[in-house]
Amino acid sequence: MDTLGIPQNMSDQVNHTVKRLRQEVPDCLAAGVVDMTTGMLLAIETTDNHPTEVLDLLAGATLDMFQGRNVVMIEDIFKERRGVQNNERYFQEILVNSANLTHLFVRNNHIEDLVAVVVCPKTVNLGMMFAATRRVVKSQLGQ
Length: 143
Hints:
The chain has helices spanning about 10-25, 50-65, 70-80, 125-140; strands at about 30-35, 40-45, 95, 100-105, 115-120. By secondary structure, it is an alpha+beta fold. It comes from Prauserella oleivorans. This is Roadblock/LAMTOR2 domain-containing protein.
């Protein structure tokens, strides 16, 4: 176990996932993985240096987007109306466009507590961004 309590092989998988996202997602400026149980950023690789406070806020914002109080309420209503009886999370992917950047947040289907984050210029081909991110997350964290 490492200092975060994650088995070394999982830590290695997370780090390798981030590296592959940076390499394989077109025009990728930054990639990371957030642990939804702790709200911590497990790994990040970026073309720019960012203050620690910004990276911590990214992890917290990711947690809020996927598991904030209102989001959980919406998920519960959708599940109830559709007769879904499991505890599986309803929202799997979130795309956010800022003035110059596109941020893609993808929940892992096999380990729901992990969310991959990819940041690209707003000019990125969205289809390629989604396809490459999904492929890497599925192949790296879906084992």
